Structure formats: C-alpha cells, structure tokens
Amino acid sequence: MYGSAFIKRRLAAQRALAEQQSSQESVSLPKGAADLFRTSKYSDITIVCGGQNWDLHKSIICTQSDFFAKACNWLSRQAKPARIDLCDDDDSAAVAAMLYFFYHGDYRVSDDHSDDFLPMVLHVKLYVMADKYFNERLRRAAFAKLAVDMYLGWKTNAFADAVAEIYAPHSGKHDELRELAVMRTRGHASSLFRERKRYAGFRAMAWSTPEFAADVARALATGGGIKGVPVKAKA
C-alpha cells in the first residue's frame, strides 16, 4: 500500500503530465482508427517483429513515420509484397506499443505499480524507438511518461532498470534521457547511495555503469547536469 505522501506526489506528477501532454502537437487520426487496429480490416501492409505480425494500414503508419513511408515506397517501386520485417534488435513489446500509438495517439501500460514493475523501461525503449522511426510525438509522450514515473518511482527497482536501459550501448546516447536520470538521482542521492539493502540493486547498477556514475559524480560536484551545467529537473 502506498501512503498519503505517495498519493500527493502522484497527483502532482499527473497534473504535470497533463500539462505536458496538452502542449504536445495534436494529430488527426481517421475516424475508427482504433477499430481498424483491433480488427485489421482493410489492411494493406504487414509489419513483422519478434515472431509477431501486425496487419496495418499505410495511410496511418506512413503519415506518422518517415521510416515506414520510405519503406512502403521502396516496396511499391520494387513490386515486392507489402511486408516489412523490423530489426531483430527491436523489442517486440515496444514495437506493439508504438504501433498502438499510431492508431490511438497514446500507448497503454500495465496498471501494476509494484516495486518490480513500473513501465519506465518501456518508456525508455519507446523514446529510443521513436527516434529511430522518426515520430516526434511518440518521443515526447514517452519522455513525459518517463519523467512522471521516475518522479513517482525513484525508490523502486524499476528506476535502476530504467537507468541501466538509458545507458545501455544499444540505446545510443540521448542526452535528454541521461539528464533526466541524473537529475532524479542527484535529488535523492543521499538515500540511493546509502548503505541500505533497499537500494542495493541501484548501487550495483551504478557501479557497473561507469558513464552513469561519472555523470552523477559530476552533477553532485557542480550542482549541474551531465555536462556540469546547472539545470532545473523537469517534473
């Protein structure tokens, strides 16, 4: 059970998220797009990843992603079947969330908010994937959700998992994500680095992730962010 302090923080964070989402660029989805995603009716392109297939619609995915637009144009010119096999490195759960986003303007996460699961890692993967597949709206949505979950869940095991994902080589280097992770850590460093069993997983992650440890050390020494420049952490 979460206490009243957690509930207050959650409400404040939800308000911050709502403000961020209201400022995002809106998208006009075709009427019934959600039903098309659910039923695959009138589909004209198949997306494949991790053994999963999605029968989708060029008019929806190509208008939201230059990657898919170029891929579909190439398939058409080559008279090849309308099928796109995504990279094996792509996480199929994140791909599913991205495709869902194309049809709904948002993506779903589990309601389970235990210490072992907050959807932070999914947010990180979607941020990176949005950059790869050229969808700025998804990138901003993923960042806004990650900022809220890190604000609420810095005490959880999921926080350490998300930081590890941000700094993983396969994620590339995204200063905005790293800045957020470092600022959240800096704000709670006295607790996270204390020799307490509760934060043992976080400390183990920090010591095994030299770039993150160096960024945090720099932030603590300078009062700034990952480059030593003073910044205000985002809500």
Automatic annotation (TrEMBL):
Signal sequence extent: none
Family annotation (CDD domains): BTB_POZ_ZBTB_KLHL-like (cd18186)
Protein's organism: Friedmanniomyces simplex
Domain of life: Eukaryota
SUPFAM superfamilies for the chain: POZ domain (SSF54695)
Annotated Pfam families: BTB (PF00651)
PANTHER family linked to this entry: BTB DOMAIN-CONTAINING PROTEIN-RELATED, BTB_POZ DOMAIN PROTEIN
Name this polypeptide is given: BTB domain-containing protein
Domain BTB positions: 43-111
